[in-house]
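Here is the promised in-class demo. Please do not try to memorize the tokens; focus on the logic of going from shape to residues.
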């Protein structure tokens, strides 16, 4: 357990989600004006903030009204490992989280080099493309570059949905805390993202 330090406490996850909601609505508006009804660059800011909000929410969930210290897993460096071990996320949701983390990494550390595939999409993220979430030219042999394919409102909407399920896993991980945190699910996702 990590011990608490003195100082102020705040619910940063709410602030991060508020920014993401604004980005999401701008993304929806931008995409609706494009011929494919999908292309939007707001995903470049939205996905990293969504994952930051999940991590922040986990810290808030574990720390609020708990004075003896935070679980050691929260001090780690892998959101995927935290969600898998502490909140028992598994199966397709865990795979979606892994893909979302990789997409976030591609956004934060862009390397605009060829992917080595005919459709300019890396094989390690193939399942994302197979879900039909990307902005695409439709050509299997000459699609947009990777970051161009990531500029997708559908991808942003999927990332919001994955985030909602991660929040749900956190909220329902401890039956004693469900009542206190259940409102975060409805208020943050249904009402805000529409």
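The designed amino acids, position by position:
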């Amino acid at each position: 357990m990590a011990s608490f330090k003195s100082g102020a406490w705040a619910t940063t996850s709410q602030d991060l989600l508020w920014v993401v909601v604004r980005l999401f609505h701008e993304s929806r508006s931008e995409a609706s004006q494009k011929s494919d009804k999908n292309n939007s660059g707001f995903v470049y800011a939205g996905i990293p903030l969504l994952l930051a909000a999940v991590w922040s929410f986990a810290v808030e969930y574990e720390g609020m009204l708990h004075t003896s210290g935070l679980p050691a897993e929260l001090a780690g460096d892998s959101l995927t490992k935290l969600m898998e071990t502490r909140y028992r996320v598994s199966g397709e949701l865990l795979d979606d989280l892994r893909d979302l983390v990789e997409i976030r990494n591609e956004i934060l550390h862009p390397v605009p080099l060829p992917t080595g595939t005919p459709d300019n999409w890396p094989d390690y993220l193939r399942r994302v493309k197979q879900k039909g979430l990307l902005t695409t030219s439709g050509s299997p042999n000459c699609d947009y570059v990777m970051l161009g394919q990531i500029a997708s409102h559908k991808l942003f909407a999927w990332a919001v949905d994955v985030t909602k399920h991660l929040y749900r896993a956190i909220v329902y991980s401890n039956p004693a805390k469900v009542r206190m945190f259940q409102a975060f699910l409805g208020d943050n996702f249904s009402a805000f993202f529409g």
